[in-house]
């Protein structure tokens, strides 16, 4: 059995916290773990809008390169940051149990989106979150904000914003859940695909590392992530697109719902679709992968039939013709 493992992570407080939680679980299984900090383009350009840094993959490409180069054995990612197209030579080795998948509002005590005053300034740099907020409260102002969770909270507390919309999972993992004033759930507020889940990426041929991580894999979370990522991939939407989705297992069935948004001047066009599929009783990830991915493609197909492709094309056009291509990785042979 593998006894030593080098894990790579971004250097943000949240990334180090969630990687530390993974490392603690592995150490409890008798694996010696060291953690390597890798700076990504997204971290280096924290003062710039994410699309200007290269679109999808800006928080993962340097970690993937370190894996391919053999400098680390595994990389811990926030799964929502991971492009849906697998990088050749790499694979998701496991998905630990997912925590809260939803967005949350952080603001004055008891604040909800409905209770915020007219003209309130809400911080978010997500096109999806801004569009959902505009659909719910067109009188509220969305203002971009970047940086780590702690720096965003400091700017809120300093009065630069009236409230923030953040991923609930990040606050939970940092022990900051008491800051949450409202949880934003479907059908009013769809989360980003794979939000709240971690993906531990490995070299595809590294059987020893895969075996060491197997005990951390959570079947229900992994199948939900597979369905959501297949859904996003079928829509040809990246992690920055105004697309939301959430899958969950209920008994022996996997359900998936999703939406595509198109902000346009003072209105927000919105398409939604939902479906479910039966799973074999007690199925594992291997047996459930096909049904999960098929469900994702099926829900995406319903949205495409309703005009989602045209909506996303217009969003890309208005944002400058689409996202820049990701920086290619140099694979070792």
How is this structure best described in words?
The protein has 333 residues and is an alpha/beta fold. The protein folds into two domains: 4-99 and 193-318, Periplasmic binding protein-like II (D-Maltodextrin-Binding Protein, domain 2); 103-184, D-Maltodextrin-Binding Protein, domain 2, CATH 3.40.190.10. It has helices spanning 13-28, 41-44, 61-69, 127-136, 149-157, 168-173, 207-213, 219-234, 285-305, 308-318, and strands at residues 4-9, 32-37, 74-78, 90-94, 103-106, 121-123, 141-143, 163-167, 180-184, 198-203, 243-250, 253-264, 267-278. Helix 8 (219-234) runs parallel beside helix 9. The longest helix has 21 residues, at 285-305.
Fold blueprint:
Blueprint: E1 4-9, H1 13-28, E2 32-37, H2 41-44, H3 61-69, E3 74-78, E4 90-94, E5 103-106, E6 121-123, H4 127-136, E7 141-143, H5 149-157, E8 163-167, H6 168-173, E9 180-184, E10 198-203, H7 207-213, H8 219-234, E11 243-250, E12 253-264, E13 267-278, H9 285-305, H10 308-318
Helix pairs in contact: 8-9
What is this structure, in a nutshell?
The chain is α/β, with parallel strands linked by helices and 333 residues long. Helix 8 (219-234) packs parallel to helix 9. It has helices at 13-28, 41-44, 61-69, 127-136, 149-157, 168-173, 207-213, 219-234, 285-305, 308-318, and strands at 4-9, 32-37, 74-78, 90-94, 103-106, 121-123, 141-143, 163-167, 180-184, 198-203, 243-250, 253-264, 267-278.
């Amino acid at each position: 059995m593998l006894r030593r493992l080098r894990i790579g992570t971004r250097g943000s407080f949240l990334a180090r916290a969630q990687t530390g939680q993974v490392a603690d679980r592995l150490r409890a299984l008798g694996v010696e773990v060291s953690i390597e900090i890798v700076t990504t383009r997204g971290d280096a350009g924290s003062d710039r809008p994410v699309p200007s840094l290269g679109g999808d993959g800006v928080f993962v490409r340097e970690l993937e390169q370190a894996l391919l180069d053999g400098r680390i054995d595994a990389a811990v990612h926030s799964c929502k940051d991971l492009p849906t197209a697998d990088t050749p030579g790499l694979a998701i080795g496991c998905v630990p149990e997912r925590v809260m998948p939803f967005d949350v509002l952080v603001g004055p005590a008891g604040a909800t989106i409905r209770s915020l005053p007219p003209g309130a300034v809400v911080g978010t740099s997500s096109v999806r979150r801004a569009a959902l907020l505009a659909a719910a409260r067109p009188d509220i102002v969305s203002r971009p904000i970047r940086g780590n969770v702690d720096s965003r909270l400091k700017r809120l507390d300093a009065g630069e914003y009236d409230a923030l919309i953040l991923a609930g999972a990040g606050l939970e993992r940092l022990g900051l859940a008491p800051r949450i004033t409202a949880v934003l759930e479907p059908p009013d507020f769809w989360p980003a695909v794979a939000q709240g889940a971690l993906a531990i990426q490995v070299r595809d041929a590294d059987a020893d590392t895969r075996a060491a991580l197997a005990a951390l894999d959570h079947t229900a979370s992994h199948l939900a992530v597979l369905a959501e990522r297949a859904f996003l991939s079928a829509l040809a939407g990246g992690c920055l697109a105004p697309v939301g989705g959430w899958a969950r297992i209920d008994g022996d069935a996997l359900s998936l719902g999703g939406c595509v948004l198109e902000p346009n001047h003072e209105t927000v066009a919105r398409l939604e679709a939902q479906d479910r599929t039966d799973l074999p009783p007690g199925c594992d990830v291997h047996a459930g992968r096909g049904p999960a991915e098929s469900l994702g493609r099926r829900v995406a197909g319903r949205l495409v039939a309703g005009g989602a492709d045209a909506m996303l094309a217009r969003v890309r056009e208005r944002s400058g013709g689409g996202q820049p291509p990701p920086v290619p990785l140099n694979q070792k042979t």
